[in-house]
Request: fold
Amino acid sequence: MRIEVIMERCEGHGICAELAPDAYSLDHEGYVVFAHDGGEVPPSAQAAAAAGARACPVAALLVREA
Ligand code: SF4
Reply:
């Protein structure tokens, strides 16, 4: 599973990183960055990563199933 981000949408709410710290973190301005290269999410973090994507209030995170 891979996550894509539409950076123009991200408003730095941080909900994704709060729900799934193994998949998302925030840069120094509060915008999302991936915890893993290329947005690849290891199996152990996939459920949380999907929940974080669903919770994004501006729908900036897209889940791509491999
Ligand atoms: S929840 Fe959405 S808007 Fe907030 S940091 Fe994450 S991707 Fe950006």
